[in-house]
Amino acid sequence: MEDEWKIARFLQMELEHEGFTTIIETNGRRALDRIIQETFDLILLDIMLPEMTGIEICRRVRDISEIPIIMITAKSTIEDTVAGLDIGADDYLTKPFAIQELLARIRATLRKNVSKRQIADEGKLIVKNLILFPNRYEAQVGGQPVELTKKEYGLLEYLIRNKHIVLEREHILQEVWGYEYTGNTNVVDVYVRYLRSKLDEQFEEKYIHTVRGVGYVVKD
Question: Which residues form a coiled coil (predicted)?
Fold first, then answer.
């Protein structure tokens, strides 16, 4: 483990010399917790970590995030390479490697990720300081992420795509819940309340307006 720490520290020093801000985490489970709780631009992920392998970390991260991941390993078998790439790693590097090669891979991966985000952001929907990213199913208010369920997101996206248009509850129900839905239209009111609690009340800004006796409308 001491040798692995020395390698990690050497990489950290080289990366910071190139202008990157870095942190080191030597425990797999703690690494996953930090990835989930903190914000990073890229992850260098060793496969051999205690408590949780890099492969498992990559798989779990890909369930919730598209953050770029470069796998690093002492193993060079085709099976390991395929496993890492199949679960969503962006690139794969086998030890030993030259620091120049790692830096080139990092720069290439970051450029590719910027391009992907630009493409995803082209179709973004905006109302006041609320932004939806439909290609990523993400919502932000003033740059702050808003956690929405799939149905909450679907309702909000439909309302925003039709902003300034008063939408009847029955029409919303058909478009968001589907024609096969046989429940009460009150479900629309319930989900509008959910959205208002996460948006209007949380950020003290009114996004969804009620048109009494008719339905709802989103206004700038």
Answer: none
